[in-house]
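Late entry, evening session. Most of the bench is empty. Finally got around to the prediction I had been postponing all week. Sequence below, unchanged from the version circulated by S.P.
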Amino acid sequence: WGFLLLVAVLALGEMAAARCPIPCVCDNLGSHVLCRRGNLTAIPSTIPQLTKKLDLQGNSFTVIPVGAFLATPYLTHLDLQHCKVERLEEGAFRGLGRLIYLNLAFNDIDLLYQESLDGLSSLQQLILKGNRIEEIQSGAFGHLGSLTVLDLRANALVYLPDMVFQGLQVLRWLRLSHNTLHVLGSEAFAALPTLSRLSLDHNELQALPGEALARLDGATRLDLGHNPITYVAEEALAMASLKHLFLDHAALQDVAPNAFTRSPQLRTLDLRENQLQGLPPLAGAKGLARVSLAGNPLLCSCLLRPFHNWLARARVQAEGACAAPPTLRGRPLDSLRPPEMRCGPPPLAPSPPVPSEQPKTAGSGQCPQGCVCSPDFRHGSCENKALRGIPRGFPSNTRLLDLRRNAFGTVPPGAFPGLKELVSLHLQSCSIGALHPGALRGLESLVYLYLTNNRLSTLAATTFEGAPRLAYLDLDHNDFTHVPTGIFQLLPNLISFHLQHNSIRELAEGDLAGAEGLRWLYLAGNAIRDIAPRALAPAKMLEKLHLEGNHLEEVPTASLSGLPALSELKLSRNSIKHVGDGAFLPVASSLQHLYLDNMHLEQISPGAFTGLGPKIRSLYLESNKMSNIPDMSNFTGLEILNLRDVPFHCDCQLLPLRRWIDKLNLRIGATCGSPAEARGLKVKLSPTFQSCPGWGRGKAGEAGPDKAMAANKPSKKKRSGKSPARGFKKSRA
């Protein structure tokens, strides 16, 4: 009987191999089928019936029709990333009752229909990241009773209606980061009884959506960072099980003393990189153990003493340092003694009083006709009202003003009278062709200014008179052909400058004059061909430089001199065919993240990465044309390395890379482009290295005589179970 069973298994294997569709690759039993980047336009009809894992990444399906997978009912894993899918027909996945993992990331889906996901009763993970989803029809997830992770990051969601997630009875993690969520229905999360983590960071929420969040009794972690939230009101958050709250990189200026009274389990509170000059004692947060205030302009005067005393009494650990007065600048909060926190003459920009104690100012009950004003959150909105002139008459204590999607055309001088407390101003998509000098006059508290998707081609420096605290300026998707000069002289506090997707052709010397405090410069999607050697020099504190999608033909090495803090450099999608020796030497001591992908790069010189080493955390080289790469054995701190779609020539000259890959705990994606017998195979699995001198020693883990990557110093240490790449699985490159 054992012999007969063996014969049956072998016969099944031969049948599966014989039925493997071209250009796919199948294992012996046909249970794992790979059809990656095969230019397929329809789901292959000859996939073995017993297939369990089907990988169709990188094809061109456009539509997934009804019953597309009825012939493969045993599927447990299905990968449809990067397949140009625009529509999932109702019943597309019918018959896949065993499927537990479905990846539809990075497609062009814009709508989820009611029955699009019908038939997936066992599905546990659904990945929809990086699509164009604007709307989710009611009931779209109604048949996914086993789902535990739903990933909707990086879509175009603006609104979540009530009960939109109905049916997800065991969902644990809902990922909604990097959308444009503006409004949440009060019952949006009502049908998620087991949710433990909710990610809403990097959206457009202007206030804490307390009513919607109150439905999440079991959630323990909430990510709300990178939203334009200016204020957390009294008892704003009622989440009985919440332990970790992230409100970092928002626009916070105030937090009410009892903001977290109804979240009694709260242990950690992340308020980094806001505009807080102080906090009241958070007496309502009785279980709080840690609060992070790093990156806030803390005023360590007598006004901060009540909070400081509360920290000591409640034994709460606090991170953060004083920004003022000058005598205490840089001092950690936990090193201060109460007598040092003195009050002298009032500062130029006093810490605003707690909203719950602030009396109504003149005009606080007014609101222009057709607009909506929220006195509790100090927000005003006239979004998409077809207005042709800037409305006036907002409450004088307004902090956030949303005027998006109107037709103003121009912004005249003094357009915002009486709004001295305004922090965030939204003027996106308003057909603005001119921002006149003095337009922002009187906005002395303004920190955020959004002018995306307008028709601006020039800006006078005097435009920004009266707004000295401006820190974030977004001019993406306008008509600039050069960087507006002179503006930085009037913006001493500017930290982040967006000028992406314009028509800028060059960066000239003097363009950034006065930008001494600039940290993030975004210039992606322009037409930049040339960067003068001294063009970036004034921005000595620059940390991020995004130049992807321009017309550069070489790495701007000379222009990188004098940038000692630069940690992230993006050069993706330029026309750089060759990277020469010492290309990144000027920033070698600080650079951590380097993007050189999708450039049709043909050659990287052996000394191109000279000076770079353990500080490098991520390196992106995917979708290029080189057949080899230089020694990277000293990149011992790598957490991400992407070498996908690079046609490596897998001969003995590549053996050092092959050995180095063996030592990494990263997903790399390196495949052979040649010779013919190795084409399409992972570098790590190519048999062409077996005939190379020293192959046996290489397999044994020895360095061998080569001077290249085989001399990887970390390999001398005994490997432990820990990986230097946190969260990455063992490489199968």
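Two things to note before I forget:
Residues 577-689 form a domain with the Leucine-rich repeat, LRR (right-handed beta-alpha superhelix) fold (CATH 3.80.10.10).
Residues 3-18, 345-364, 698-733 have pLDDT under 50 and may be disordered.
Will write this up properly tomorrow.
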